[in-house]
Specification:
Layout: H1 10-17, H2 22-38, E1 47-51, H3 57-65, E2 74-76, E3 83-88, E4 93-99, H4 103-106, H5 108-118, H6 124-143, H7 146-149, E5 150-154, E6 168-170, E7 177-179, E8 184-186, E9 189-191
Parallel strand pairs: 1-2
Antiparallel strand pairs: 1-3, 3-4, 4-5, 6-7, 8-9
Length: about 200
Amino acid sequence: MEKPIQIADFSEVTKFHGHSCPGIAIGYRASEIAIHEFFSRAKDEEIVAIVENDSCSVDAIQFVTGCTLGKGNLIFKDHGKHVYTFLNRDTGKAMRISLKSSTDERDPEFAEAHKKALSESATPEDLEKYEKAREKATEKILEAPIQELFEVELVDMEFPEEARIFRTVRCAKCGELVSEHRTRVENGKMVCIPCFHNYSRA
C-alpha cells in the first residue's frame, strides 16, 4: 500500500485564504479525506473536485488537493450545499463527502456570538466574543473525528470531460476577445455574454 502523502499545514492554508474560520477548516478536513483516500495531490487533471458551494471551504480544497479552477479540475455547482465530490481518473474511483451539521448546529456558543456580531447593534465586545468563538469553533472542526463531521461514501458516477482549450474569437460588439464556446449568436454574429441581448417572453 502506498504511503499517504503529507498534506499542507493548516497555517499555510489560512495564509493563502487570508483568515482562519470554520469554513476553511471544513474544506481542509474534506481535502484531508480525499488525499488519504487517493494517496495523491493532483499534479494535473487526474484528480477532480466537484464543489457545491462557493464558501471559504473551496480555497482549502484548491490549496490542499491541487484541484483548481484554472487547471480545469475544480468544477463549481451553485447548489449552496456543503458537498464535495472527488474523482480519480486513474482509478475510476469517486467519493462524495457531505457535511453532517452546520457550525451553528454543532456549537450553540458560536451561533449566539455570530448572531450578535451580525446585528446592527453589535458592540466591540460582541465582535471580540465572536472572534474568540470563531477561533474555538475552527479548532473543534480541526480536531473532530471525521465520522462526526461528514458522511463519506464511494459513488458510481459519470466522470466529467477533461478540460478543453477552445478557439478565441472577437466579440462583434465590444471587440474584446472571448472563448468561442462562451459566445452567443445575435443577428448572425458572435458576441460575448455581457453584450448579448437576451430575448424572452417568459
